[in-house]
Amino acid sequence: MHHALDSTCKALVENLPDGVCYVSMEGMVLYANRSFANLLGFASQQVLLGLSMLTFMHPDYHVPMEDFLYRVLQKDHSLSAIQVRILGSEENQRWMEIRWIDIPVEEGAFLVVRDLTSYKTLQEELLLQALTDELTGLYNRRGFKMMAEQELKHCHRLKNEVVLLSIDIDTFKQINDTYGHDEGDRVLKLVAKTLETSFRSSDIIGRWGGDEFLVLALDAPSGAVDLLTARFKQALFDISQRQGLPYMIAVTIGSAFSNVKTVSSLEQLIQQADKAMYTNKHR
Hints:
By secondary structure, this protein is of the alpha+beta class. The protein has helices at residues 2-14, 34-39, 62-73, 117-131, 141-158, 172-179, 181-198, 225-242, 266-281; strands spanning 19-23, 29-32, 81-86, 94-101, 109-115, 162-169, 204-209, 212-217, 251-258.
């Protein structure tokens, strides 16, 4: 009966949908079921035996994994699971959760491994949706604030100068009222696309709300504002002509800058750029 039960348990573990492995005190794989081998892209679990768990991890996760294994093998219950990226290409990232199962054994530990790739992909998609403006594909207010604050801190540490532009579409209400909201949406998309082609990919661009856009131009001296705005305005003029629009897309722009002498927060930069934009609009 005992032998039959052992055989049944082994067959059960062998056919579980989640990966199961047994690692030595040195973190070497001593046992692996089929699901664990499949998760790592191996046809047979036999080739895994004797290999370090770090063999399968992306280098960025070697240190966290070593810390996790150390705690597990010391029977430290403060960290029972870890999420790690599997070694592979940047285009095809794969993730797994490794969970310690506290089964009494003389040495080593049993680990249960679950594929997290679909969950991580969904998580990234949801985060992207939460930070992106659905109409234009630019950062929305939340996304712009999060990315711009992060980059602004980085620029402050490096003592780099940055410029923030506040951009408002002229006569947008008239375009909406005359040609309809679909045409208004078209204008917003054209402005967004022109912003992306007029500024560097490293610059932070967002739709702040309505017909207002913000650009945080990184490592850009304040003396370059006229050049940046003139290039963007010319690009809008050109696209209006190429598209054969019955109106000309024009914008009013205000700017603010932060450098070593005048270190400003993102909120201060936005307020200053907005004020400059409204001043320019009413000239």
